[in-house]
What we know:
The complex is a heterodimer of chains A (652) and B (304). Chain A is α+β, with helices and mostly antiparallel strands and 652 residues long.
Amino acid sequence: MSNWLKPGLGIASAGTVILVGEDGGYHMRAGLAAYRRALAACFAAAGLVALAACGPGSSATTPDGVSPGGAASNSVTYAMLPGGYASYPFPFFAGNYIGDDSTFDVNDFQYQLYRPLYWFGTGTTPYLNPAVSLAELPVYSGHKVTIRLKQNYKWSNGEPVEASNVVFFMNMMKAEGKNWVFYSPTGLPTDVTNVKAASKFVVTMDITTPKFSESWFTNNMLSEITPMPTAWDETGPGKPSHCSTVVADCIAVYNYLNSQAIKSPTTFATSPIWSIVDGPWKIQSLDSQGKLVLTYNTSYGGPVSPHHITTFTELPFTSEQAEYNVLQDPTSNETIDVGYLPTVDAPVPPAGQLVGANPSSMSNYKLSVLYVWQLVYFPYNFNNNTGQGPIFKQLYFRQAFQDLVDQEGVIDGPMHGYGKPEFGPVGTYPVTSYLSPQLASRGDPWTLNIPRTQTILKAHGWLMGPNGIDTCHRPGTAPGDCGAGIPLGTPLKFTLEYATGTDWMESSVREIASNASLAGMQITLHPEPFTDVVNSAFGVNGEGWQMAFWGRWTFAPDYLPTGDTLFQSGAPNNAGQYSDSHNDQLITATLDARAPSLFQSDMYIWQNYLAGQLPVVYQPDPPNLIETIRGLNIGPQNSALDITPEMWFYGQ
Amino acid sequence: MTAYLTRRILQAIGVLLLVTLIVFGLLTLAPGGAAVDVLGTGSAHKQFLLEYLSWLGRVVHGDLGYSRVRNESVTYLLAASLPRTVALMGISTLLALVVAIPLGLVQATQRGRMVDHLVGGLTYVFYGMPTFVLGALLVLFFAVRKHIFGAEGPQAPGILGVVTDVRDLTLPVLTLALVTIATFARYTRSAALDSLGQEYIEAARARGAGMRRMVGAHVLRNSLVPVVTLVGLSFPQIVGGAVVVESLFNIQGMGWQIWQAVLNRDFPVTLGFTLVIGVAAVVGSLLADLGYAALDPRVRYAQA
């Protein structure tokens, strides 16, 4: 169902919308595409990197955790990615309200106030984290799933986080599916029935799908739920309603809550609605510039560091360079404690090391890398109506084209040595059990090889013309022919739309175009704003584009990369309309595999097959480069970008 | 003068209405439901002129629409960014005028001498230097290495906090001013040289008038005419902001906001801000015309 679409940057977070990374890529999460189709609009996203920083005062924090000013050791200032700002606190949201800043509105804002039912992010992996989740692991019995909420979580108004809070959210999903960004006709809430509070802390629901994988349901369905407090179940101040028990009442409740969420963000801190939280943080202030100050919620019932910080400030930035300038200036009015290093300024890591040495101006920070749980690629438009669709459908062509991509060159060049090649439908980094061991051990078989491209094309009836462009000389479907639907004389001429603003993306597409020209193809590059590229790929009239590179896809809040989101025939986020019946069968087998062990083996079988089919053009995966001020311990940052600043502390 | 002033103001009002009509036309033509975003549902069924008048009425009352991307009214975003930009651009323009006019006059009076070549060379350097390069160099030296000024612009939400934060305001103002000084100084020098070549200057000189008196009493006033033109033309920039400098110094001003709005297809913000910048252009032009009239009586008489 859904994940986030993001521009190709360095880091990104999870959630279902679009983000940009530090090195400028755009991410996209699932769920959005359907919304985009409906509204014919998309959003831009910005690559994220790790971010943050803290501490009022004008001095950096010393290694022992005491800032020179002596007052900053209980606070952290965190740098948001360029263009990021918190603007929508309601965790039940339509895509248009979070637009291009899902990381900022969801991971960095909403999740700090209202924790989702299940938390994803364990160590650096995107795995479910039971310790931080509001509920025990779900128990499946037949088609019934039972969710037992932990009793140590309370809302800040003193009420417990209870079963009816989950039902409240589920009922809202049923009543306001059109305003739920992750709504899918085959997902929640339509694939469950009889959702009820079996007791004060136990929720049960019946799954209507005849066959289902427990792993998939937990990681890609239940992952979308965020309990909402009973105090929100009202249609106005002092006008209680019954959305928790009567679905029909939810429409008026939604309208009221949404009306409060679209008020000026500067009012959020004093809102009687948004001040009721179950997460570790409450809004202290949110100013007109987007500076967000969160203060620790003393009634938070989840795990926290014994010496946790009490103030968490998120700073907006207009550009990576602006953030980098502040990082380098320890006397700045706003010292950053956790920020990001633009890739263009990143030190090349020495052989065998993950990171390079910070420049001298950054000696007060330690640099680390974070690989986001994502897939970096751009699709072919198999549904294209200008003659290229039949070419894209030829497996030999896709193999020949992938040979033109120099992933290692991009990693060594514009990515400054940071990055990992992608070569299958499941992200290669961070290392997870989701990646087929066979693919992991095989590595990238599609390294740059222009002669092989030439050989493949020649072997399939393409000959170079006097203008240097190959044309089809052997139309037909026999072995060695060009393939079905490709007339005699068809040239290998393509257009590639790509989102501007990300150095490595621009370098990559230029190199592909250059390499293609050597192999007899002409690729015309169309640099466009991110939103335009996404609109092409996911818009209503999607037949005209040929290849579109917006950035990347982040697997969240559907954390299992099962293929039903991106590669199954007819999937709303299958931008290029790739269709392969065997692939569909393998995906279905995965989703139907009830037992987790069977699910995993089926998933390996699926990705081993699809990796060889090259349904998209794989691109290298850039990490986020995180700068953390010395003395601050933030632990390993998880690839789902779900930050837990309540676990951060000064000292070793 | 009164008749001239009245006529120019009336003309400006006419141009302003034309600006609003163009902006509204763009709004209705924009794809992706922009008109509905700004005008509300049902707008497509109304007559263009009626809808225009309705929209104009809302604009006059300060309602420029709502940004679903930013989750804020356009008026709010405008209120948050306009003072910041006007402070930044206004101070830099004033600084440029204060420095450039004397520099240009000195260059003119010292034509061909070392000081003329020196100042001329510097103005060429700054005039030709991209602001992102100049800004980055200033940050590197004054903020990162010497810690004399802040690496980012003022972050205080209120205008008072912005203008009083000298440490953080200096580098963005300096980045803008150095380029503007170069431009203004070149124009001032050129105009002053023209004035110095006039017969009345020769006559004054023959009567024994000193250079200081000639420049103060005659050359300066005539040299200001092209500068007034430049300042008038700068109004849209003063209001519209400088995207590069705002982006480099972390200032959420008009330029940065409109740039983000364009990237995100945020039509209400794009058009609302465009309208304000258009108004600034008209007002700037009007003020420049009034400035001509004040500086040169022949303008008033010719227009009367």
